[in-house]
């Protein structure tokens, strides 16, 4: 991957040179290259081995604020030239957009940092298959209620990201991502349940051990056995970390520039207003070394900086691309392509402490469906998990729906546990919300 860096950067430079010769006002080129392997085992047998080597170049040109875009997977000089010409032809027939164009020069990252994101896998296919097989073997032999498996999978991929534009920006960085997962099926009586676990990281050495993944998958699967419905009611709800991150994911959508300039967000005009309890903070750290969502620059070449998203419950910033910033008469925040390593302030209680704090209520471990309206904030999703009684798990529950409004849910957060899920790019502990509607029997 590193060996290809100069060749790929030259391809981007060539595309920009051709665009300039064709007389465009501005041009930008994004090129991505990914290669890697995925292996699957099931019941001790090799089920799948898949190699991939994908890539493509996207070119956008601007002529009198009319935009044209084209792409190609062929990086030969002839193909690049044809693609640039295609983008130019398209630009001549599109409508003028006064907000279109490259990111302002003063927002570009002139000196990108090396964030230690590239740790390619040095293990061969046989070793990766052995890793998957060992994880599945441990799981299948650890509890007699585990009667089947949907398999274990190891993924290992490396990527090169290059971005250049006619403001003189041309930079690249390499990254890697590896994971191990296991999916199991448990049976008790006539009931069957499915569960899984995983680990991921920038380096293979950062993954949790196969035994941890296996034991966690077994625990999550057998705990679901004996699940029942509960009566329709209002009660306190705790979101486990792996689903709690989704709540803040809805915040991401609501304060993103596209939602704001389209006036399709329940948090319109919420900058510098309180949207969470006054003890809650959220920070962003894009330059965390080996971070899952770290980036030296965003997809427009924009600066990524450490910032507070929420401070003392007050929203400090929107998430803006260059285009959205111009539409809103604001400045880019370096979020073209998404967020970068969010950290939600946690409290002193662990999960068991949150159970005791709640007393009785619902502990949600899985959510289903897409019943979230970002325009109104209305929230309604299928859920499963456990009923908590007197501060301890009483029994598993399923086939229920939880509902509320995100504005109220955010303000009604009573506590956040210190049981952070380290695998997520949005790091939070379990979240206790004092009251939600629960639809069951």
Question: What does this 3D model show about the protein?
Answer:
With 441 residues, this protein is α+β, with helices and mostly antiparallel strands. It has two domains: 2-222, 2-Layer Sandwich (PmbA/TldD fold), CATH 3.30.2290; 227-279 and 340-441, no CATH class. It is built from nine helices and 17 strands. It has helices at 5-21, 77-91, 125-140, 210-222, 241-254, 257-261, 322-327, 351-358, 406-411; strands at 26-42, 45-63, 66-72, 146-165, 170-188, 191-201, 233-239, 282-284, 307-311, 314-315, 342-344, 361-368, 378-389, 392-405, 413-416, 426-427, 431-439. The strands form three sheets. It has a six-stranded antiparallel β-sheet with strand order 3-2-1-4-5-6. A hairpin with a 2-residue loop joins strand 2 (45-63) and strand 3. It is globular, with a radius of gyration of 24 Å.
How are the SSEs placed, and which strands pair?
Elements: H1 5-21, E1 26-42, E2 45-63, E3 66-72, H2 77-91, H3 125-140, E4 146-165, E5 170-188, E6 191-201, H4 210-222, E7 233-239, H5 241-254, H6 257-261, E8 282-284, E9 307-311, E10 314-315, H7 322-327, E11 342-344, H8 351-358, E12 361-368, E13 378-389, E14 392-405, H9 406-411, E15 413-416, E16 426-427, E17 431-439
Parallel strand pairs: 7-12, 11-16
Antiparallel strand pairs: 1-2, 1-4, 2-3, 4-5, 5-6, 7-17, 8-9, 8-11, 9-10, 12-13, 13-14, 14-17, 15-17
Helix pairs in contact: 1-2, 3-4
